Amino acid sequence: MSGFVISSGTVVSGDRVEKTDIAIDDGVITEVGTDIRQDGREVFDATDCWVGPGFVDLHTHLREPGEEWKETIESGRAAAAAGGYTAVVAMPNTDPPIDIGYVARQVRRSDGVRVIPSGAITMGRSGERLAHLDELWDAGVAVFSDDGDTVADGGVLRRAMEYIGQLGGVVAQHAEDPGLCAGGHMHEGSVSSRLGMVGLPAVGEEVVVARDLKLVEVTGCRYHVQHVSTAGTVELVEAAKRNGLPVTAEVAPHHLVLDHREVASMDPVYKMYPPLRTPDDVAAVVEGLTSGVIDCVATDHAPHAAFEKDVPFEDAPRGVVGLETAASVVNMALDFGPTDFFDRMSDAPRRILGETTVGVEVGSRADLVVFRPEGHWEVESLHSRSHNSPWLGAELEGVVEATMVGDQMLWRRQ
Q: Which ranges constitute the DSSP H helices of 100-152?
């Protein structure tokens, strides 16, 4: 194929928004303007669509190595492309945890959806001895996390922050105080009380974030709060930013629209961590994302096989898949125009990674998503190996029409 022309779309590049055409040859944007000649290129009609930088997910669980029946790198990349993502950060809670060789292999790949490995903060994510942070950094890791577990020992985390701060990396924390949250299955509140279930209190998240922010003051290390779910955490992040601390935060799509009343059904598809919180918490994280206190959307894509979720609620694993539905959910939950939408989905995650944001301009390698904000689609099937999605069977507004990296059209809706 000689190239592409993406025609008549609303092109978003940073603060610039204009209706125009894009020509792509050999994977590089060669023209941006109106009435571009076809010249043998394949034409993609992007009328009524936003065309901007591919989405980046800072929080993806690919399950490989160790749990390939849930997801593999390739099935995860296919799901990502269908959701408009051109890069995903793979969490290290695999079995065994991500090692140096895995990091090096993924960093070398240049085809299709980029898989950006994160590195564990502690050996085996045990929360005790620091991992080989310098070797992980040298191999290409920028984000360090024990995600799935919290680095609960303040002394260990302080040493990690001192070291990672010197390297220039980011500490990303899964904030769950193990003492306060032990045995919990859902948000601690009226629904858990009515069901007689042990709850996960909001303070279990907030106390970890509050402690960590004091350590950021001491160390100066860049710190990222994963999957913010409570109003209290939003307030803590806002105060930290006002004080000039190097703090960023993410929110998962499901926390923008669903609340703890869903779990009254005891359907394990609604079991996740952090748990679905109160309507007031939902309103707070929506406002946080709108205002920019919360920097970006991250899916926390957590695949589990049907047989694993088809058990009593208290026995089910926590997590939902989200790569293929995230853009639609964000589109429905927030009244974003194209600039804010692409900032939260594409540009802010790249800034957190320390990468240069991708511009839609002549000379840039094509890294694009075509998104129809007023389109509708029914979630009938998914490319992920696992289908533990609360949106399965639902009609969503906002359609990923195409995802492109270089000269590859990774996804095109039929």
A: 100-108, 133-139
